[in-house]
Amino acid sequence: MEKSKFRKELEKFAYDRGAHLFGIADVRDIKKEFHFLDEILKDLDYAISIGLRLSGPILEEIADSPTKIYYHHYRQANMALDQIAFRITGFIQSKGYRALPVPASQILDWEKQNAHLSHKEIARLAGLGFIGRNNLLVNPKFGSRIRLVSIFTDMPLEIDMPLEIDCGDCRACIEVCPAGAIKENKEDFDHMRCYEKLREFRRKKIVDQFICGVCVKACKGQETCKKIQ
Length: 229
Ligand code: SF4
Ligand code: SF4
Description:
Layout: H1 2-16, E1 21-26, H2 38-41, E2 46-53, H3 56-60, H4 68-94, E3 99-102, E4 107-109, E5 114-115, H5 119-125, E6 130-131, E7 137-138, E8 146-153, H6 191-203, H7 214-218
Antiparallel strand pairs: 1-2, 2-8, 3-8, 4-5, 6-7
The protein binds iron/sulfur cluster (SF4) (2 copies).
One iron/sulfur cluster binds at residues 134, 177-179, 181-182, 194, 197, 212, 214-215.
């Protein structure tokens, strides 16, 4: 009962503060993969996953490389997510539980693409989508046109289950990737090719961060892929 009550309260709290997607994952089995000390994550067995939908018109402006306005929007979305996560943390702590908000975008090692944790893996476990051919989370409604943040907590919460769908017949991102990194099987995604392309964008001073946006634009969820409707 308490799990369901807390979940409903949190969900409302998040949506009232601008969240577009909300889910809860049981992370006990994957906690070891996160770059936090064991004692920090002790008893924080749940993770709340929050998603924000990106602007369609800003993505539509992207051709084969990131734009200045996409770069700005990307950072805006991360800041907005961090704000929501911060407020959720306060809410949870006011109820007497622990909460750890993880930055929406904080890569510790760009070459290995290492962050504190994988927001997309938590979102997948929280039922917000599946990992697509583009190596991103694909939400059935919004595709990969989203940004994510996660908050760990020991507050007892009713959890969601992963979705049992995939890209199906959609291949919209494969042909547009300027690096040729996206393959038929998601397991074959070429991380190095993608990383080299992001380095190139940054070297050319197109943007000041390792971002691209081309496969984000291509993945429109139910607009692109019939199977995931
Ligand atoms: S981020 Fe860009 S380079 Fe990397 S897979 Fe997507 S489209 Fe290709
Ligand atoms: S664009 Fe299509 S193939 Fe690519 S990740 Fe999205 S759903 Fe999958």
